[in-house]
Amino acid sequence: MNILIKSATIIDSKSEFHNLTQDILIENGTILKIAKNIKNTNNYQEIKLENLHISQGWFDSSVCFGEPGFEERETIENGLKTAAASGFTTIALNPNTHPVLDTNSDITFVTAKANNNAVTVLPIGALTIGSNGVDLAEIYDMTNAGAVAFYDYKKPISNPNLMKIALQYASNFNGLVCSFPQENKISGLGVMNENITSTKLGLKGIPALAEELQVARDLFLLEYTGGKLHIPTISTAKSVALIREAKKKKLDITCSVAIHNLCFTDDVLTTFDSNYKVLPPLRTQTDIDALIEGVKDGTIDMVTSDHTPIDIEEKKVEFDHANYGTIGLESAFGALQTIFTTKKTIDLLTKGKQRFGVNYSPINIGEKANITLFNPNSKYTFNKNHILSKSKNSIFQGASLKGNVYGIISNNKVSLNN
Description:
Blueprint: E1 2-10, E2 21-27, E3 30-35, E4 45-47, E5 53-56, E6 58-63, H1 76-85, E7 88-93, H2 104-113, E8 120-125, H3 139-145, E9 149-150, H4 160-170, E10 176-178, H5 184-187, E11 192-193, H6 196-201, E12 205-206, H7 208-225, E13 228-231, H8 237-248, E14 253-258, H9 260-263, H10 285-297, E15 302-304, H11 332-336, H12 342-350, E16 371-381, E17 400-410, E18 413-416
Parallel strand pairs: 1-4, 1-5, 6-7, 7-8, 8-9, 10-13, 11-12, 13-14, 14-15
Antiparallel strand pairs: 1-2, 2-3, 5-16, 16-17, 17-18
Helix pairs in contact: 2-3, 4-7, 7-8, 8-10
């Protein structure tokens, strides 16, 4: 792959060319030259786009597809096309398939299906067999097959002793354990945030306490066991405070927040639109303010689209019976830019790599090209025409977003949007 990128503004704090507008010459997937003006003497393919900006390739720590078992929701092939078109060069893929990814061969299947693609897939193995929360899965064996973390997606580990054993066992090989922050005995049959809005709508609520109890429990366990813990998609102000205190104690803890939990309050549920039914649920403005502050001060380590395709049969039903989840890859960049500056947005989309074992690839001469191309200034209303996923369950339909993605260059491949 030989490419000449013309007049690109480089947004990469780890690059010596940060904030400069340069030409970039790439030969055989490696950055050969960066300069103000490079002549195309070898007649390479040129990339010249309006207000072109580039950064290190983006990373998403929580993506679901469907294959194997739920191909009607999303296939690996189309999911990777969607990720590339959305600017992501690397994704961590959740194990909530059928069967659940809980063995060496399951992890091998996913990596083989995703091989030879511009987007790198990092499989997450189930923490327990079948994600049933009873017996620990063969997590060391999955590590040998390429699993980068272990997580029963959206299923809390109710048995604290099982979580204790998982943290202790995984620490023997530096494994990353993920724990969904919800105490099911508190959340009960709730379908949205427990608040004045849930009372008005007559919907059962999930108290913030359900999340905070689980976070506090897991932090106590981590302090006791050591090991590495990641808490995905926190949603309450108290969770931010608990994790902030844990970091002051130097515990090996990271956490993420779903982008939609930074953008919407539970007030949007007055329409009973099931696209707003997500887990953890949308909370209050007070929670959003605390989450944004946590992102800014580094308490929250990364953001995620928490991309979860759900087919129409499981969304176009009564709100109580609808499945949880929203797609989010396509809207991630544009949504973040409505809250943060472009520089901060890019920082958030490239953070979290190290935690999941991804090497940083700064935009410097001699480095492998791992690049996202984008225009940060375009404004538009997100609609179905912007959705590339097989499932169309986007929480951002009708939202005003800022910035569009041109594509990616990664793994010695170019993937540009039409």
